[in-house]
Each structure stands twice: as C-alpha cells, then as structure tokens.
Hydrolase
Amino acid sequence: MAFKGVLFDFSGTLFRIESTASWLRGTLAGSGLALPEDEVTRLAVALDRAGALPGGSPTVDVPDHLLELWGRRDESAELHRAAYTGLTRTVPLPCPALADALYERHRTPEAWRPYADAAEVLRGLRALGVRVGVVSNIGWDLRPVFDAHGLAPYVDAYVLSYEHALQKPDARLFALACDGIGVAPQDTLMVGDDRRADGGAAALGCAVHFVDHLPVDRRPDALRTVLGLAGGTGAA
C-alpha cells in the first residue's frame, strides 16, 4: 500500500553518532586536554564498553546503582544527562569535568552524520507529497542537528520523548507523532532500528519497517526501500 505519512527514528535510522574514539578526541580537543595516544585508545575502549556514548554501542551491563535511572532515561533532559554521565563516570577519567564535556559533545551537530541516502529519501518523500515526522527516545533537542545537515526542510513534525515524559514503545508517543503530521496511523509507516522501541508503533495501527543500526559507511542505501513502500511498490 502507499502511505500518506512516514515516521522516522533518529539515532541509527536517519543519523549515526560518531565513533567513541572520535567522540573522546573531539571532547579532549575542545577542553584543551592532551593525553598520550595509548591513553586515548584505552579510555575510548573503556567508554565504549560502558555504553557511555548515547547512540553508540549498546550497554551490556548497567551498574545496579543506575538501573532505575537507566529505565527512565529518555523521559526528561535531567534523567538522560544523569544516566549517561553516570555511565561515563564508571570509567576513571583524567579530569572529573570530562564527563559533562563528553555529554555536551554528543549533542552537537558535528557529532552526527546522516546516512548516505537520508537526504535523497526525505526529498523523495516530499516530492511524493508524503508527510514526514521524527519520533525519538532522546533527552535533548535534535532539531539543530537536522538544520545543520540540511534535512530540516523535509521534516513536518518532531516528537521527542523528553518533551512529553513518554518513551517508545509507548503508543501514545506514536499517536502524538501521527497527530503532528496530520495522518491517521493506518496510513503511516514507522521506520526505525529498534524492534522493541520502534515496533511499538504497530500497537497503534502503523506499519513498521526496520533498518540495521550500523556505522554510516556500512549502510549506504537501506533507507531507499522506504521510497518504494511510501509509493506503494513494496510491502512493509
């Protein structure tokens, strides 16, 4: 079927965060800190294992003292910051202020890269007259990222978990997104990389299509399928 609206997840779907090593190096440079290369490599590996970078490697083992906070991390800006800086602080850092500096770095547009086909697909949907929304579990305003990378003109509505104190897979967040783009759920396709979180749209009656959460250079064209689905030439 053809769809009148498409909802996209943000991280791992339209954009991908930089590598943990790049995240750390960029933060160190911005803070005026210099470390030996072997120490940078060691810290990057430790931060990656801790799951400290939002949108990076999934956390394998959240410490007990952060478990409750982790479960609600996307419900507010304060909870999101506390959860991720808490994970960062499980790694011994050369400077205590580095935890907050790392958190600030990941919120900047230069920390994110759109997937190679993101602009093409969003432009194509606009040409088809399909309404587009972004619905994300997140603790900060991602709109400047879309603006900096030239994708903002193709997005009709943003529904961000921290602005509504709701997290995917809660169907209420998808309902807000459908209302935001002015399209009924049964005429809407949700595209995401998380089968649990993004799959929650199915409970509302949306069709769901999944892509793999891979580095940008390893996923050049997975979003192009969405154009076919929106145009009615594929199946969700």
User: Anything to note?
Assistant: The two ends are 9 Å apart (CA to CA). DSSP finds ten helices and seven strands in the chain. The longest strand covers residues 131-136. The first helix runs from residue 20 to 31.
